[in-house]
Amino acid sequence: MASMIFRRLLLFIPMWIAVSILSFVIVHATPGDPAASFVGMDTGAEGMQAVRERLGLDQPYLQQLGSWVVNSMRGDLGESYFLGRSVSQAIIERLPVTFSLGFLSLLVAIVIGIPLGTIAALSPNSWKDASSIVVSLTFLSVPEFVVGMLLIYIFGVELRLLPIGRYVPLSEGVWPWLYHMILPAFALGVGQAALLARMTRASLLQVLGADYIRTARAKGLRERRILIRHAFRNAIITIITVIGLSFALLLSGAFITEALFQLPGIGSLGVNAVMRRDYPVVQGILVIASSFVLIVNLLVDILYRLLNPSIR
Question: The pTM is what?
């Protein structure tokens, strides 16, 4: 286990370098000039050049790329053009918001998706199964911003049951924090809940048709015990894979939801940075989001070995 973790951690180095290079290339390939966004289009050529020198944009392209990669390897993601502080500090300040949204969205996906998929698997080709398929395909097809706008209109504008457009930190109380996060968490998590329901159904159907399940039923074991002790223990690998990927997608895909609900997270920070051509912030967010995916994949592999002795 320790050697596997060590080897995977070593792989982070070339992956980090590759992500750093790709983020720099992608960001600098987008149209627009940060200097023009910084001082305005009416500034003269001399003033624009002075700003470019101040921001380091006058250096050769490869020199900028090399400096960015080397500094990012040391944990220095640069200074924001507009925020007046380091990119690392700006991201750390907004991490609690994004992690709160990602955690609650994942909780919504698990609470809705696994029971829905289990009910469908236990009653194949029934009205329960058909209803599960219809609900899952519906939420998989509808974009998250459409779900968010519907929730805002119904529960925030018409019924006025839930607040919109404000974040309350967990330090002010669990209920105020949860109360203000219900709508965005549901808007972001319902799509992953549908995916998790489909994967849970498929995995359980495959396991429930195995010979050892029929043997357990022939021995007279209760259906609940067969489901929990035998079926779920073998289907959990696929389910954990989907949960891990969903969490990574929820963390890196919170841009639209945070902007829609005006949450001060990494997503809204990234949207504002893209609009203002704040290259260091966009590059830093891309690197951090990619790191989330790598870390989650490592944690999923560790869970594989803890839950499945055959893998160990």
Answer: 0.82
